[in-house]
Each structure stands twice: as C-alpha cells, then as structure tokens.
Write a structure and sequence with these properties.
CATH superfamily of the largest domain: Dihydrodipicolinate Reductase, domain 2
Number of strands: 14
Largest sheet: 6 strands, parallel
Number of helices: 8
Strand order of the largest sheet: 5-2-1-6-7-8
Number of domains: 2
Structural class: alpha/beta
Bound molecules: NADP nicotinamide-adenine-dinucleotide phosphate
CATH topology of the largest domain: Dihydrodipicolinate Reductase, domain 2
C-alpha cells in the first residue's frame, strides 16, 4: 500500500497527541510523520517524535496535514499547507461553516467529501450526537432536537486537564484551592453552564456550533434544534441528554435495533440491569455509546436518549483519521 508523509499540527496538545496514537493504532499508512507545534515546543519529544516549529515547516514535504493547533494555526498555516499541495483535515472551528468546505463525520455524511483539499472536522459534541441521530433520522425523519451536554475538561485542552487535577488534589490534601486560570470559576466539584463566549442572543459559542453544524452535516438547514452546553469535572468523554422528535413514531425497540446496527455506535441500554454508558466507559476508545432510550410522553413522536463518547478520540482525533482513511479509499490522497 502507498505510504504518505503526514504532518500533525498541534502535536503537543491533547488532540494532537491523540492523533499520533490513533494514526499508529489504526495502521494508517504513514511514511514520515512530522510533529509540529509552536517554536517554544520545538526540539521537545512527543510520542517518540521530535517536535518541529510549524513556522519553519515546508508543507510541500507532506501529502496530508492534520490540524489541531487552534484557530490561529488553522487560519495562518492551513492555507499555506493547501498552497503547498497538502490536503488538510482541520479540527478547529475556522472553516466548519464555510459552504465550500465539507464538514464530515464518516459514519454520517462521507458523500460530502468532494474534491476539496480542505475538510473540516466537526465540534466534538456535535460528532457524537449526529452519529447517534443519523440512523434514527434516516428511518423516521428528524424534526427537532433539544440537547444538553455534560462536557469533560479535556475538551478545553491540556491546560484544563492540569487545572482540574490541581484543584482536585488541593481539595484532597486540604490545601488552599489553586486559582482558576483556564475556566472562569472553579471546575472541581462544580458545573459551569458556560462553554466558549456568550453571544448577544444568550447562547454560547459551543451551543451555536452544535446547532449550526448539526444542520449542515445532516443536510437539514431548517432543523429545529436548541442546545445547552455544560462543563463538568470529568477528565475524558462528553455525555449528552438528547430529546429528539421525528416525523413518525419511533418505538424503543425500533430505535434499539437501528442503533445496534449503526456504524460506530455501541448500544448500552439495559437500565434494569444497571447498563447505561458513563464517561469512564467511553474514555480512551472510539465508539459512541448510547443508552437510556425511552419514548418522550410530552410530545408526538419523541424519543429521549443518552450518548457518551471520548471527545479527544471520536470527537476529534479518530474522526479526523477516519476522514483521511475515507479520502484515501476514494483515491483523493
Ligand atoms: N480537546 C478536544 O476535545 C477537541 C475536540 C475537537 C476539536 N478540538 C480543537 O482542536 C484544537 C486543539 O485543541 P486541544 O484541546 O488539543 O488544545 P491544547 O491541548 O491546548 O493544544 C494546543 C496545541 O496547539 C498548538 N498551538 C497553539 N498555538 C499554535 C500556533 N499558533 N501554531 C501552531 N500550533 C499552535 C500547541 O503547541 P504548544 O504546545 O507549542 O503551545 C499545542 O500543540 C483546537 O482548535 C480545538 O478547538 C479540540
């Protein structure tokens, strides 16, 4: 099989490190791997690779560049990578709502991958929700979604993981609580209904992303959808409570069958036996776990469920590598 030279931008970050691991685990055909980050990380090691400064890197050396360096890196270096001939899969929000840029979850809308050399990876919370919604939508026609998220601190990156750890340790040792730096308030033993900035309509940036991206991925520009996003003191994996309405009734039995056959989904739905997904079940693996299925008695054709996935893996790194695999399969790399 043809082997590719690959760059990972943001390789020292939470998502970038996961990308290197996922490329290895899934045996993606990598020839040379270039781990890139800011000049301050150049020369350090990550997952066995010596980090190079993105500023000096010649993207003409790679066929594929996976970006997880944040919005500034994506705005500045993704166009440079494209101009050098590399295909970019970008994890930031920079290009997601650009009508010319496909926004892809391979289990849901691989047909959106056209000839674009720039592909956007959706927001982590959106990815796991659409993996679960898509098979139900295909069968019964999605009309409305109300979602509430419970998002882990790794969704904010490496500094947030350190912040929760330091606060939890200080509490355990009876020491003064370290000052919150990454989050606006203490995150340990707390919940923050505040992910990204508040907008003039009262929603946060994260909530807006979930609403807009879901419509784009599912080709449902008029979908009624509302989101509340909450940061919780969990290290890895996001959880979501989803209330969905469809064009026709969907029984729990039918939903269980559809979800158990859906790619990327693992059904964990036997509440009487204590079987339902939690973040500890989902962390460090690639599946989207779904449980707590029940018919919503408050609306016509409503179904409620609970969905959990590892935000660094299916919510970011794994989805990006799956996009690269799809591009390879379609002969676009
Ligand atoms: N965390 C998630 O669950 C998740 C999910 C989906 C998408 N994303 C997106 O993925 C991206 C990375 O998130 P993260 O959680 O991995 O953050 P992180 O842990 O804070 O890591 C940030 C990475 O970006 C690098 N970086 C920062 N500014 C840069 C620049 N101007 N040029 C090149 N590299 C730069 C950092 O390098 P240094 O170490 O040298 O500073 C580091 O490698 C963000 O766009 C985020 O929105 C994250």
């Amino acid at each position: 099989m043809k082997k590719l030279n690959v760059a990972v931008v943001g390789a020292t970050g939470a998502v970038g490190k996961a990308m290197i691991r996922v490329l290895q685990e899934r045996h993606f055909p990598v020839d040379e791997l270039h781990a890139l980050a800011t000049p301050r990380s150049a020369g350090t090691k990550v997952e066995g690779y010596t980090v190079q400064s993105v500023e000096e890197f010649d993207f003409g050396r790679v066929t594929l560049a996976l970006f997880a360096g944040g919005e500034v890196a994506s705005s500045v270096y993704a166009p440079r990578a494209n101009e050098s001939g590399a295909t970019v899969v970008d994890n930031s929000a920079t290009y997601r709502m650009d009508p010319g840029v496909p926004l892809v979850v391979p289990e849901v809308n691989p047909h959106h991958l056209g000839s674009s050399k720039l592909v956007a990876n959706p927001n982590c919370s959106t990815i796991q929700m659409v993996v679960a919604l898509a098979p139900l939508h295909r069968a019964a026609g999605l009309k409305r979604v109300i979602v509430t998220t419970f998002q882990s601190v790794s969704g904010t990156g490496k500094d947030a993981i350190d912040e929760l750890q330091a606060q939890a340790e200080a509490y355990g040792q009876g020491e003064p609580m370290p000052e919150a730096r990454v989050y606006p308030r203490q995150i340990a033993f707390n919940l923050l209904p505040h992910i990204a900035s508040f907008q003039s309509d009262g929603f946060t940036g994260e909530e807006r992303k979930m609403m807009d991206e879901t419509r784009k991925i599912l080709d449902l520009p008029d979908l009624a959808i509302t989101a509340t996003c909450v940061r919780v003191p969990v290290f890895y994996a996001h959880s979501e409570s989803v209330a969905a309405e469809f064009a026709r009734p969907v029984s729990v039995e039918e939903a269980r069958k559809l979800l158990s056959e859906a790619p990327g989904v693992v059904l964990m739905d036997d509440p009487g036996q204590g079987v339902y997904p939690t973040p500890l079940d989902a962390q460090h693996q690639d599946q989207t776990l779904v449980g707590r299925l029940r018919v919503d008695p408050s609306v016509a054709n409503g179904l409620n469920f609970w969905v959990v996935a590892d935000n660094l893996r299916k919510g970011a790194a794994t989805n990006a590598v799956q996009i690269a695999e799809a591009l390879l399969e379609q002969g676009k790399l």
